[in-house]
Amino acid sequence: MKVAGLVAVACVVIGWQAAALQRSGPRLGQEVAVPRHLQDGEELKLSAPALVAFGRALFEAQWTDQDGGGRPLSKGTGRAVSDPAQPLKGSRAFNRISGPDANSCQGCHNAPYGITGGGGDFVTSGFEQADRFDFVTFEPGDTRATRGALDESKQAVSLQTVGHARSTPGLFGAGYLEMLARQMTDDLQRIRDQLAPGESRPLVSKGVSFGSLARRADGRWDVSGVQGLSEPSVAIPSGRGKPSLVIRPWQQAGRAVSLREVTNDALNRHHGIQSIERFGSGTDPDGDGIFNEMTRADVTALTVFQAVLPVPGRVIANDRDIERAVWNGEQLFERIGCSTCHVPALPLDRNGWIYSEPNPYNPEGHLQPRNGRGFRVDLADASLPVPRLRPSDGQAQALQVPAYTDFRLHDIADADAPATDRRFLTRRLWGAANEPPYFHDGRFTTMRQAVLAHAGEAQVQRRAFEHLSKYDQDSVIEFLKSLQVLPPGTSDLVVDEHYRRRDWPPRPRIGS
What value does the mean pLDDT take over residues 25-29? Predict the structure, then answer.
């Protein structure tokens, strides 16, 4: 669907909302961002474009307290505030560090070009785990734990220790990424389920190694050889339970399984909006007087909107010198080992581009497949926003997702980084060039700075980059600069500086 088509569908949906509101009787003086919510089951009756348009409206909604925005008596974690005598109201309603910290999803996800669903500037960075505080103040006289200045051990926190700074990630191509993660989880679990007592096998999916898994002679699991997965995915349930081995592709430290999990958590953490599926029906966990703030159908619409966002592409100017440098840098990127983790493309097969809600690996507290019929959408549908990935001629059973990631956690931090803030998902490089700032905490303004900051597991690659000639270093940067989010409506994945289609790789004459 072209941008104009999406706007048209959005107008239809908004008109439908208005008509439904009139049928139920308008409320004079009402100030809400969303006058009517979907009722559970309605999401299954809407067409994909209509559901996407409604999800977009929710993503862009500027929540008010009449919508349920804000959480006077609850933390971003969902727990009750430590001091109910000081609710998060009035001047305490918003807090840039511990939240609520945003009026809308779009407020942070809006770059580049002001596109809904993109990344964000440094000003939109969040502070992971700081939401365990009521309202961070850093006031020395505040003596209650997790109220405003002291942690759980009653130790004073600072801006550097209250939480982990995280830059706002772009969501382009999100549906393809989640479906890749689901397929890789399937592969790892299939290997796990074929293991007999006393055996050990490598965990490999789509060419990416996650170490090895073993079973002792008594049948118990040995996960000591598993690599690149988060702790919840290698945890062994009590008794003789199996490690889940679930790939968690969301959040910088790989903590979330699905877009839906991220959405449910972010609604409460950043906006103070509680979804029914996470907090229950007929409840008011944050004490703001508003019940059932977000229905299951609403969350499905919001999640599907993110899942069908277009994918990033390449911008390569029609300039002989730039062409040579980009092609040289692309080859060097692989030669010096960067592609070991930033895998250029991973195959999505078995019709994996048919995105479905809910994710079968969702944790408890988020919609499960057993809860009823789900929603499906073909990510390769030509009517969805472009550019898109589609199976190539002669490859009807697979398509390549050029995200430049391996879905693994890696320790690339320097020696001064705290132990709790070292392992991160390999950053997806598609779209990176025009979604600054860089690194997990957004501390760098250029990609060159980010490359030179690689340490730990990536130290060999960083040193290889440092030993390149100046021209070769510049070539790698020119290659990275070509990986961009394209303007809305751009149909081709590789374009020139005027966003006209161009062929790539270059013809042999360029390297001659």
Answer: 77
Q: Going along 2-59, which residue ranges are E strands?
A: none
Query: Is 288 within 8 Å of 81 (Cβ atoms)?
Result: no
- CA distances to 61, 266, 274 from 74, rounded to whole Å, are 22, 14, 10
Q: Is 461 helix (H, G, I), strand (E, B) or coil?
A: helix
Q: What is the pLDDT of residue 26?
A: 61
Exposed, middle or buried: residue 412 (CB in 10 Å: 0-12, 13-18, 19+)?
buried
Name the token pair of 90.
Answer: 């009035």
Question: Which residue(s) pair with 165 in the sheet?
Answer: 127
Which of 471, 406, 59 lies closest to 262, judged by CA?
A: 59
Q: Distance (Å, rounded) from C-alpha 251 to C-alpha 424?
A: 9
Q: How far apart are CA 310 and CA 504, in angstroms?
A: 20
**Given CA atoms 186, 187, 192, 194 in this order, what sign does their dihedral have?**
positive
Tokens, residue 92? 């305490």
With contact defined as beta carbons under 8 Å apart, do 390 and 399 qualify? Answer: yes
Q: Does pLDDT of 495 surpass 50?
A: yes
Q: Is 17 helix (H, G, I), strand (E, B) or coil?
A: helix
- Nearest in space to 267 (alpha carbons), one of 230, 298, 232: 298
* Cα-based angle 497, 502, 508 (whole degrees, multiple of 5): 115
If pLDDT is split at 50, 70 and 90, which confidence band does 421 have? Answer: confident
DSSP 161-176: TSSEEEPPPP-TTHHH
Supply the Cα-derived Rg of the chain in whole angstroms.
24
Element of type H or E holding 334: helix 320-335
Average pLDDT over residues 188-194: 98
Peptide bond into 391 cis (omega under 30): no
The pLDDT value recorded for residue 394 is 53
Please write the tens of the pLDDT for every residue from 75-96. Answer: 999 999 999 999 999 999 999 9
> Helix (H, G, I), strand (E, B), or coil: what is residue 312?
coil
Query: Which residue segments constitute the domains of the chain, with CATH numbers given?
Result: 313-352+402-511 (1.10.760.10)
pLDDT at 397 over 80: no
d(C-alpha 169, C-alpha 388), whole Å: 19
Percent of the chain with pLDDT over 70: 93
Q: Which of 145, 143, 142, 125 is nearest to 133 (CA)?
A: 145
Distance between CA atoms of 151 and 168, rounded to whole angstroms? 25
β-strands 221-222, 208-215 pairing: antiparallel
Within 427-495, strands assigned E span 483-484, 494-495
CB contact set of 143 (below 8 Å; sequence gap of 6+): 150, 154
Q: Which residues contact 88 (CB under 8 A, 6 or more apart)?
A: 70, 71, 72, 73, 81, 95, 100, 134, 135, 272
Least confident window among 164-178, 384-398, 434-448: 384-398
Q: Measuring CA to CA, which residue among 241, 279, 203, 259 is closest to residue 59?
A: 259
The CB density around residue 242, as the number of other CB atoms within 10 Å, is 14
Q: Which pTM value belongs to this model?
A: 0.94
